[in-house]
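Subject: two folds for Thursday's group meeting

Dear M.,

Sorry for the delay on this. The cluster queue was jammed most of the week, so I only got both jobs back this morning. I'm pasting them in the order they finished. Each block is the input sequence followed by the predicted structure tokens. Could you check whether the formatting survives your parser before we put anything on slides? The first protein is the one we discussed after the seminar.
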Amino acid sequence: MSGVNRAKPTLQLESANYNLNKSLSSGYEKPCIFLSHIYVDKKDAEQLADYIMEKADIDVYLDIYDQDLQNAVTLKDPSKITALIERGITNSTHAMCLISEKTINSWWVPYELGYAKKAGKKICSLKLKGNVELPDFLKIGDLIYGTKSLNEYIQKIITEARLVKGVPNINVSLESHSSANHSLDSVLDWNN
């Protein structure tokens, strides 16, 4: 089984009240990673979300699939946009900030991380390919510099979910690097 994108409207997960941290079948808290990114890095965010869902069986929240949020953006309703972003963070267990050279131009990424920190979410920053220097405010949680450290971080989340929270049967099939291309080679460096 794969993780799901909790922002997709097709989910049948108690969408009326957004109590999405609980699996309907067993009542346990399944990990969910809120992916904070600047819109121009959308393709990289989608690729990472797919990897996390398919290979780690962990849920994600990727805002580009939240129809309510996209409607609020279209209507230019800042109050609604903020409330919906906060809802996505609230219903996640972790927040992962995707960092590229373009992230510095985002007003939302620092807001999302600040809100996640205040909400007690576990925070990490993931450096996308390229020569990017992380600002100090992005160094407050785990730092992920490539595919190898992403896999280690995911394994840490899974271990915690199994041991501490009693989450059964997360099906992990993370890809190790070989002579063949890794599915994230276009997004992340491998050896970091």
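Second protein, same layout:
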Amino acid sequence: MKAYMTNGTYSYLEKLKTEQHVSPLLLLNNEVKTVAYYEDPQPSIFATSRNFTIIGQRGKLAEEGFVSIVHIPVTIEGRPIFELEYNERIERIKTAVAIRLLRPQTGNTYILFIEWLDSSAYKEWKQTNPLPHKKEDPYIAGPVYTETFHVGEE
């Protein structure tokens, strides 16, 4: 299964969502930007998209809640180790509604896409589960960062 993301204005992406027959198509927004995310075995419906292969998943996506997107650059030689370790890690994240581990089709930045019931569930998880760090994990190729979004509301 493939996963696709694109950026745009909320109104444009909301219009695209009503025109397309893809479900669920999540509209994620924060103070800075709006992102559309969906999964499908077919090619992307977006004119410009970031394309991924889903290599790990748990739970069913909902069109409401809170999402954290962790960007993790991984070395080429570290990919097999990273994929194995993170597929095990997603099974241990019990408070999430849905989780996707996404391998990039181009580039080296994997995505850990986690949907939470609300922002407090994310904050609680974040306090007890630090992000990977280049000094600790030799397969990390650069800075790891997280973006957070509300789902389905502008």
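Two things I noticed about the second structure. The chain has a mean pLDDT of 91. The longest strand covers residues 50-59.

Cheers,
T.
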